[in-house]
Amino acid sequence: MTKSLEKSVGRALLVTARLHRARMGERLNALGLFPGQEQALKSLQSAPMTMGELATLLRVKPPTVSKTIGRLSLQGLVTREGGGRDGRLVQVALTENGQKTAAALDAVWNQVEEELLEKLDAKERKQLRKLLRKASKGLSKAGADVDEVDDEAEDAA
């Protein structure tokens, strides 16, 4: 490995992201889920939405959402219903089992988050959050794909 690669922030971020995804995958597997499905479940937890709304929220293409919802439907975690005036809009909602699974995801996320941040103190954790958001903006098109966070709210956290 070259010295420049060893010092690469991007590589460090990639390695950390892969480890995080692997750890989440282990924990999600215990719930019968695959990585990515948890995001759909958590997004639907507060209210049903259309497939298009879900795709936009998750920042993925509609076929990806369709595939994910299809798998979650087979597992009995979501339902799909035609809606709208012309019946073409499909509303997706969590089933009772889906609501229970979505609620259980908070514990999974918190466990992995604690492992991720275990070696950082509160100040470092806050600084890391801010730096990652700032770096994300640098990669996005003028920050359009990055959730805006109120700096004052962040400072209070």
UniProtKB/TrEMBL annotation:
Domain of life: Bacteria
Keywords, ordered alphabetically: DNA-binding, Transcription, Transcription regulation
Region (Disordered): 135-157
Keyword match RNA-binding: no
Keyword Transcription part of the UniProt annotation: yes
Pfam families assigned to the protein according to its UniProt record, in alphabetical order: MarR_2
HTH marR-type domain boundaries: 6-137
Bias (Acidic residues) ranges: 145-157
Protein name per UniProt: MarR family winged helix-turn-helix transcriptional regulator
Organism: Bosea vestrisii
